[in-house]
Amino acid sequence: MNRIGIIGDVHAEHGRLAAALEFLLNQRVDALICTGDLPDGVGDLDACCDLLRAAEVLTVAGNHDRWFLQDRVRHVQDAHLRENASKDTIRFIESLPKMRTLKTPAGALMLCHGVLEDDLAKIWPGSERSSSRCSAALDALLQETDPPRFVINGHMHFRTVIDFPRTQVINGGTLKGQYAGFSILDVGNSRIDSFNFSTENDIELARQLDLGAHLGRRVWRNTDDFDGEWQPVILHSA
After folding, report:
1. Which of 26, 39, 117, 186 has the most CB atoms less than 10 A away?
2. 34 Cβ contact partners less than 8 Å away, ≥ 6 residues apart
């Protein structure tokens, strides 16, 4: 588990998902993970689930997966209906846990959609354009004797890194919209390589970030310390 391919919220982008998986497999990653939100987009949900299943991508459930199964909040744009999905797709989405934990040489990696069990939660230190969002649940985890080395989440559609003393929260972003892309977490070299879709399926390196040397980045004690004075660590551009 030295090199881990990170795919964010899918939202039925089957073409980009196929391209991302092909690229990541060619990069010889040791594992593939996904932050969920498989339905509700312009593409083919069945194809997305088939791709994730075939590539053995470790996937968690997001709020859109939950809404899809419950037939709720179907007024969202480009919503998928459960009645139109294949039985295999429904079974696959039903099988997704809210959280997964992987072992890496640097310590545990925790995969979730929002913040831990809450698929609608967000954390954000705050910036000039947006207010901060805190999480008591994450703060409790950060205070444990042996907290996870990495927390990988999605939901915000914005690839970024938030630094804490012993944990880094990495947002996987999304395959949808203007910030579409994915990342490779290189645990052995303490680095994350992030990639953009320059056109529909063309892939280009957006940024390489040294996770070991904070290089002026703010390191927060916990989310209760968020004060809105933060320059976001953006992975979809250098």
Report:
1. 39
2. 6, 7, 8, 10, 52, 57, 58, 59, 60, 172
Six-digit token pair at 21? 């998986």
Show the tokens assigned to 127: 């910036």
**115 has which bridge partners?**
118
Give the contacts of 26 (CB within 8 A, at least 6 positions apart): none
Map out the domains of the chain with their CATH numbers.
Answer: 3-225 (3.60.21.10)
More confident call, 130 vs 62: 62
| Number of H-type helices and E-type strands within the chain | 5, 11
Kindly list the distances between the CA atom of residue 118 and the CA atoms of 17, 113, 173, in Å, as whole numbers in the listed order: 25, 8, 17
Distances (CA, A) of 221 to 119, 166, 218: 23, 9, 10
Which residue type is seen at 53?
Answer: R
